[in-house]
Amino acid sequence: MIHSLKNYFLLGMLALPFLFLACEGPTAPVEEATEKAPDIEAAIDSLMSQLTLEEKVHMIHASSAFTSGGVERLGIPELIMSDGPHGVRHEHGRDWVKDEGVRDSSTYLPVGTALAATWNRDLGYAFGSVLGSEANYRGKDIILGPGLNIIRSPLNGRNFEYLTEDPYLNAEMTVGYIKGVQDQGVAACAKHFVANNLEYEREQVNVEMGDRALYEIYLPGFKAAVQEGGVYTVMAAYNKFRGDYCAHSEYLLDGILKTEFGFDGAVISDWNAVKNTMEAVNAGIDLEMGSDLPMLAMGPPDYGKFHMGDTVVTLVNNGTVDVALVDKKVRRLLRTMYRINAFGEREPGAYNTPEHQRIARQIADEAIVLLKNDGMLPLEQSATKTLAVVGANATRKHAGAGGSSQVKAFYEVTPLDGLQNLLGEGTAVSYAEGYTVSREGGSDADLIAAAVAQVKDADAAIYVGGWIHGFTDEWNDNAYDAEATDKESMELPFGQDELIEALLAANPNTVIVLMGGGPIDMRKWQGKAKSIVQAWYPGMEGGNALADILFGNLNPSGKLPMTFPVKLEDSPAHKLAVTGFESLEQNYTDGIFVGYRYFDSYEVAPAFAFGHGLSYTSFGYDNLTITKEDGTVTVSVDVTNTGDVKGAEVVQVYVKDDEANLERPAKELKAFQKIKLEPGASQSLTFELDEDAFSYYDDKQNKWVLEPGTFTILVGSSSRDIRQEGQFTW
Ligand code: BGC
C-alpha cells in the first residue's frame, strides 16, 4: 500500500529509453555523489526538453504534506519525504491525517544529542543505515535529517534533535549519519540551514552574526555534510538571516551553499518557510514544502496556490521571471531522483530487524554519560534484594512526542522495564512516581512522602527524572524538549528539585538519572548526590542500556557533546548576547564564544565540562609527541587502561593558538578517537592535523588564515581534563 503511489508513476517510466540508469544511485559510493555523472546529466537534459512549464512548476512545490509534485506523463515520480531525524515518522496520509492500520512503527533510535554523546563515528554511520534502511522499506525517498543546528543555548526546545555545541564534533558525527542513510539508497536532508538555534517565533526571528561566527561555528557541519557526506538535499530554515528569510537568501543558498560549498543537490524549504514568490524564485530554494495547517481544517490545501505554484507559471508567461530560474530548480530535483534511483527499482530496505534494534541498543550503551560518581556506581546486583525506583521518567515513553521528530516506536523499553528485565525475580523492585507531570503542578507532599518511604530502607534507590518532550503526543501540547517551543528556564519542572532533596536526605545513596536533551540547573542538590547519570532520550532500548550501566554489566563511555553550565546566566548566549532570548532580533554577539569556547576562555566553571564523562575504570595518558612536516602536524599519545575493568575512552585533541591577531578561544577540538581497552592494555594513537586545524576565519579579509607562530596541543579526557600538552611552531 505504501508503495502504490510510486509504482503508479513507475509504470509510465518503463517505456523510457534511459531506464539503464536504474543501476545508478543506491550502490554508487557516496564519495562520488557530488560529482555530476555525465549520463545522469544527459538524462536530465532529455527530460528537461520534454517538460512543459506547467509540469516544471508542478515539481517545485508540494503536492501533499510530504511529497513534491510528480509528472506522470514522463514517469517522473513524486519525491516522498519523512521525518527524521531519529526514526522514520508514522504515516500521515497525503494530508496530515494519520493513516490508521498501516505498518508504520519504526526503530526508535536515541536522539541526536545521545548519538553525539557516543563520540563514535561508526555509530553515526550505523544510525544512518538504520534510518535509511527503514525509510527505504517504507517507500521514502528523503529522510529529513540530520539536524545540524549548533546547540547555542540550553533553552532551545529542539536541542535534543541536534548534536552538539562544537562544529568539529558536529561535522564528524554527521558525515557518517549521511553516508549511512544514503548508502541505503535514500537521500538525507541536512537541516535547518542555518542559525535556527531557538524556536521562539522561529518563522519571524532575524539572526545577525559576524562572518567569523558563521564560518567557524554555524557552517562547518553543513559544509562537511555537503563536501564529505555528499548529502543529496538540504533544508532551508524558517528564520531570517541578516534580514532575509533563509529560504529566500541568495547569500546563503546560492552564495555559500551552492557556489562556495559546491552543493549541487536540491534545497527544500522547511514546511511553510517560503513566504514570497519572487524572492523564492530568485533564490536557491528548489522545492517549497509545507501545508497550511489552519487551511487543512477546511480540507486539503490547494497546492497550486503555493508561492512556488501557479503564480510562477503566470510570471514566466508574462516575462517577469526567466524560465531558466525554474529550470535550475527542476534539474536539481531530477538529479536528486537519479541519485536515489527514484526511476528504478531499489534494493529493498528492512524494517524493525533485530540488527536495527541491536544498533539502537549499542548507541544507547555508548551515549549514556556518567556525570558524577563518588564510588556509588556500579550497583551490585547480588547485594540488591530491594530496589526503589522513583520518578515519572522511569516509566514514561518518549518516542511519540517532541514535534516532527516523533516516532511510533515498535517498542520502547523504559528505565523501569530495563531494570526489571535485568534484575528478574532476585530483586524486589518498587516504584513511586514522586511527582506529577503537569504544567501547573509543583511538588506534591504526598507523592514525596510515598517516594521517601520507599527509598529509605531499600538496598538501592534510583531516581529517574529530568525533562520530558510533552504532556501528550499532540503537536500543540509539547513542552520543554519540543519543537516550536523553548524552555523557560534550566530549572527542573514539576517540583523535582524538592523531591530529589528529600530522596537524598532519606537515602544519600540514591542514584540520580536525568533524561532530556540537555542540561538542567542542579545547584540545589548536585553537591549532595553521590552519583549523577545523564541518559538523554536513549531510544527504544534505552532502559536496558541504563540498567546494564547502573549495575556494571556495561562500563559507561558517553561524553558530553555540550557544556552543562551551573546556571542559565552563565551560558554565553544569555550572558554575552545583547538582545534578549525572546526578541525578534537575535544578535549573536557571543560570536565564536559558544559552549566551551566561552567557558574555557572566560574561565567560567561549568557544572560539567564539554567532553566530560566518567568510566568505571581509569585511563593514563603518556608520551605525547608532536611533529610537523610540510603541512601536517602529527600528534601521538599512548593511552592505557589503568583500572580493573575494560572500558572505552574518548581521547580528545584540542588546539590553542598561543598568540594571534584576533581573539581566539582557549582551546578548540580538532581531533578525537574513541578506543576500547582491556584492563592494563595500552594503545598508541596518532592524529594528523592539517592547516585547517590551526586557522581562523578572518572576517576582514573574508578568508581562512593560518597565522604562523606557536600553538599548544592539549590532549585529554574532556575539555577541562587535559592530561598531556606540548607546543610546536608553525
Ligand atoms: C520542522 C522540520 C520538519 C518539517 C516536516 C517542520 O516544522 O521544522 O524539521 O522536517 O516540519 O515535518
Architecture blueprint of SSEs:
Elements lengths: L3 H10 L24 H13 L2 H7 L2 E3 L2 E2 L12 E2 L29 H7 L2 H17 L4 E2 L23 H16 L4 E7 L12 E3 L2 H8 L1 H8 L5 E4 L3 E2 L2 E2 L4 H11 L5 E4 L7 H6 L10 H4 L13 H8 L5 H17 L14 H14 L1 E5 L12 E5 L24 H9 L4 E5 L12 H12 L3 E7 L29 H11 L4 E5 L15 E6 L5 H9 L21 H4 L9 E3 L8 H6 L17 E11 L2 E10 L5 E11 L10 E10 L4 E8 L6 E3 L4 E3 L4 E9 L2 E9 L1
Helix pairs in contact: 2-13, 3-12, 3-13, 4-14, 5-6, 5-14, 6-8, 14-18, 15-18, 16-17
Bound molecules: beta-D-glucopyranose (BGC).
Q: What is the top-level CATH class of the largest domain?
A: Alpha Beta
Total count of helical runs of at least 4 residues: 20
CATH structural architecture of the largest domain: Alpha-Beta Barrel
How many DSSP-defined strands? 26
**Named CATH topology of the largest domain:** TIM Barrel
The amount of helix comes to 25-40%
Strand content: 15-25%
Q: Find the structural class using helix and strand composition.
A: alpha/beta
Q: Which residues sit in consecutive blocks of at least 5 with pLDDT less than 50?
A: 1-34
Distance N to C terminus: 62 Å
Which cofactor or ligand species appear? Answer: beta-D-glucopyranose
The profile of the biggest β sheet is:
6 strands, mixed
The rough form would be described as: globular
Tally of domains:
3
Fourth-level CATH superfamily of the largest domain: Glycoside hydrolase, family 3, N-terminal domain
**Mean pLDDT, as a whole number?**
92
What is the alpha-carbon Rg in Å?
Answer: 26 Å
